[in-house]
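call fold(seq) -> tokens
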Amino acid sequence: MKIFKTALLSLISVSLVIPFAFAAGNVEKGKALFNDPKAFGGQRACSSCHPDGKGLEGAAEENEWMTPAGSASTLAESINLCIINANKGKAIDPKSQEMQDLIAYIKSL
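ret:
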């Protein structure tokens, strides 16, 4: 009986975690956005300043992000500062799939 309860709890736990894992961003789509100079209505790609993600290693673990445009309290806010100031594009919704994809790519660095 104890094994059955353990198995059932494990199954329930996995079924609750899997949807969140798939809800996260797509690294490949994030990389494509990162390298697209026309993404978000901008003039240059993120990779123009960060070739192959250089300088962003470990950025996902930060508590505060410093950009040439100022500091940001979230990674999404930092990304938008770069999109607006360096890329001359339009900010994207922090909850959008595009933002989740960019964050997934940055976390993969």
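The chain has a mean pLDDT of 85.
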